[in-house]
Amino acid sequence: MPTGGLEDTLPPQVIGSQPGNFTVGFVGRSIEIEFSEFIKLEKINQQALISPPPQKMPEFRLKGKKLLVKFDEDLKPETTYTIFFGDAIVDLTESNPLSSYTFVFSTGSVLDSMALKGKVHMAFDDVPAEGAFVFLYRIEEDTIPVDSLLFFKKPYYVARTDKKGNFRFRNLRNEPYRMYAIEDRNSNFLYDKGGEAVAFSSEVVHPEYLDDKKTDPDSLSVFSLNDSAVIDHKDHKHARIAAVSDSLVYAARLLADSLAFAKLRSLKLSMFYEVDSTQKLLRAEVVRKGQLNFSFRYPAQNVLVEPITNLPDSLMLIRMYSAKKDTLTWFFRDSIVDSVHVIVKLDTLIHDTLRLAMTPKVVAAAKRNQKKAAATSGLSYTTPVTGRRLDIGKTLDFSFPEPVIHYQMRDSSRWIAKGDTTYNQLKFVKADSIGLKYRLDFQAFEPEGDYQLRMPDSVFFGLSGATNDTIDLAFKVPAVSDYGNLILDVIPDFSGQMLIQLLTPKGDVVEQRSVQGRQKLSFIQMKPAKFVVKAIFDENANGRWDTGDLVAGKQPETVVYLDKELEIRANWDLEEEWKVSLSKEVIPTVGPKD
Q1: Number of neighbouring beta carbons within 10 Å of residue 292
Q2: What is the mean pLDDT of the chain?
Q3: Exposed e or buried b per residue across 464-484, where buried means at least 16 C-beta atoms within 10 angstroms of its C-beta
Q4: Distances (CA, A) of 430 to 297, 397, 439, 460
Q5: What separation, in Å, do the N-terminal and C-terminal C-alpha atoms of the chain show?
Q6: Is a pLDDT exceeding 90 seen at residue 381?
Q7: φ/ψ of residue 368, rounded to 5
Q8: What are phi and psi of 375, to 5 degrees?
Q9: Cα–Cα distance between 351 and 316 in angstroms, integer?
Q10: Measured between alpha carbons, how far is 460 from 312 in angstroms, rounded to an integer?
Q11: 81: enclosing H helix or E strand
Q12: pTM of the model
């Protein structure tokens, strides 16, 4: 069967318009734009934006391969108009969008010639914000407060960021603007707090003159065609020649346009997600047998969570907060109580009463695994031993899924440390307040030492009555030469507090240090791996990164990354000097040594 040719991945191309794009002296009310193929319009009334805004949106109508734009009112004299189409123009067959296409014309003798450029990045991890919308608002008298513009008023000018987060505005009026950026997931050109990221400039921005007399601004609507492209043309030979010609013209025009914009200063916007500061109970559920979790939006030590009726002593209720204090866990023993009536209260913000089942929901997967669960119903545990290895500096901890309320060592225990064997002398200490963790009372784990522990069943008794099965654990502590060291000389250009985070390449925090001023940080006996280093300018000295607040005019805390991955190798010291600047300039020098 015929394959139908290669897939069409190119957007429609503008091959002409009446009047021409970037024309002056425009009269009339209609515009006609011709494309290289049949097109369709997707949500044109939501995607299109015109500045200055007309009293009524024009009519958008298709006629063959042409798009007709017809205004229903007289246009203002001596005014430059910009029609931003967003992603509304797509080809008929594959819906490839002509992204961010803009049509500009003037009813006067000149076009507005001012421009702006910049970059939008995500504040938390400093990655480019691709596809963000950048808005400009004129500074004018308005009944809408400045801090509410994004919520209620559509912008005067719009641009969109590319894959690197870069954006450009051209043909702007020579006046100051307020500048914002949003994700705009629903394409309404308004900010929907909670579901969209936002950025703003703390100061008004002033455009600069763009000297592009030798540049055809409409070059941005020209697309180069490669040799594998499918060309919708009767004469393929001539189309191929035209494609090569278009590519050369496009490259020349793009270079000239880039040179013109290169002279402009670049602005930078930090995009962030705002948080709702209102405390809220997110969910309350029995996550496993004997464990009920209350999850809150924020730390909840001040939230009252209590049963309304008295519970029987046989329930043996034990309470515990998570490390971040945003989850309260109730551990309890099975009893005749099948539900509990609970009150959750915090001043006037939360006042809920809940009736909660004391048994977990049974799902299909759980039913299929009932036999397997019954076979492993003993008290489970985890330890830091992985691959028969316990890292230097680690203690041997046994972590349990429920509080251990009773511990009693029995005969037939055995402990082998570097060839020396002792019997029935194992001791454990409780490593937390409620018995979720017990630690072997042995502090002399030496490098290159071999250890073996054997312990009978029924030593640890959980809250539910479950006990451990026989424990047989063998491991080795690696040699010091199996690890590497990192000495990081941090040289900030300001005196405030800064957080230095050591991250995995996936972004997980391995370790965090707080520094103020120049300081050498030593990370000793690290396992060989690659790491990323991140600095957070901790303005309020609370030990964490804080997001921004649009209405309050608060920018998110600045984040800077060392511009390279650091690789820790066994038996090596890696020394790194990092000059950290608020301007995000990072100047590293590296010197590994054996």
Answers
A1: 21
A2: 85
A3: bebebbebebebbbbeeebbb
A4: 30, 10, 6, 11
A5: 64
A6: yes
A7: -65, -25
A8: -75, -20
A9: 26
A10: 24
A11: strand 80-84
A12: 0.76
